[in-house]
Amino acid sequence: MNETLEILVEVNHVWKSYGKIIANEDVTLNIRKGEIVGLLGPNGAGKTTLVKQIYGELHPSQGEIKVLGGKPTDGKIKRMMGVVPQEVTPYGELSVYDNLYFMAKIKGVDKPTAIKNVEDVIEKLNLKDRRKTFARDLSGGLRRRLLIGMALVNSPKLLILDEPTTGLDPEARREVWFLLKSLRDSGIGVLLTTHYLDEAERLSDRIYFVNRKVIAQGTPMEIKRKFSLYYEVTDITSGKVYYVKEDEVKDFVSKLEGKFEVRLPSLEEIYLKVMGNDS
Ligand SMILES: Nc1ncnc2c1ncn2[C@@H]1O[C@H](COP(=O)(O)OP(=O)(O)O)[C@@H](O)[C@H]1O
Ligand SMILES: [Mg+2]
Q: For the structural domain made of 1-80+157-219, what CATH number should be given?
């Protein structure tokens, strides 16, 4: 079957506090080559704090983080990552091309490689028609695409995106999902944070569900299973909706006359349930 998957990120029992506020509590997780890992949690759950430690901008208060075999604060390791932080924008007064090129230079890519990588990114991200456009004149979706491009100019092995689709319209969100999947398929490890359930569910190969600490982890399906104590049964004839315990569904529907529909609750419903109990 599969060869052993390469581990890109190891987070081991990490705690991070700001004074009295504990943002991350004993977090352990990993990311492998060629997978998209979603860090899902509500605002204030500690997602940004955690990813900042993974890309070497913050130090853990306790615990250990290993990225690409080294310390995330090491310049050499940093240059092998691509990062799209929360709430950044490209330089409005620079063209698409120049934003990409200068980012490559900032990341220490040599000139011939920078020129080549920028062309590759422009091609892959379909920015050809926009190469001379000032970043300030781009739509929100294109601006976000450029930011992802800027994270890719050093050919990273690991891409980290903090809320990559927040504020985008549905079409632009889908574009970002499609792009991230194609990057995953090309062998890059992707870590993204999101508070969107549908995004985590559709995009991630694995999810870590966090609210200060890791509340659950697994594939979207496993997460659903773990928390779905109830099935939603809709009696189509009467239009009534029932929440029925897993082991009672069979009995329950056998008593319904006419058409019915049974489904697992959405991650949204699960999410609300868990957050309600554990925040
Ligand atoms: N620089 C900071 N100083 C003090 N508290 C902070 C700082 N950054 C974040 N926090 C707090 O840490 C918690 C986690 O924040 P954050 O990591 O930004 O969560 P998320 O990205 O999931 O919304 C929140 O309670 C937030 O207010
Ligand atoms: Mg955040």
A: 3.40.50.300
Ligand 2 center to residue 2 CA distance, Å? 34
β strands within the chain, DSSP E: 7-18, 21-32, 36-40, 62-67, 81-84, 158-162, 189-194, 206-211, 213-218, 230-235, 240-245, 260-263
Residue having the nearest C-alpha atom to atom 3 of ligand 1: 18
Q: Which helix (H) or strand (E) holds 212?
A: none
Q: Where are the domains of the chain?
A: 1-80+157-219, 91-155, 226-278
Ligand 1 mean position, distance from CA 111 (Å): 38
**CA 42 to ligand 1 center in whole angstroms:** 11
Which ligand has the nearest atom to the CA of 162? 2
**What digits encode the pLDDT tens for the residues 130-170?**
999 999 999 999 999 999 999 999 999 999 999 999 989 99
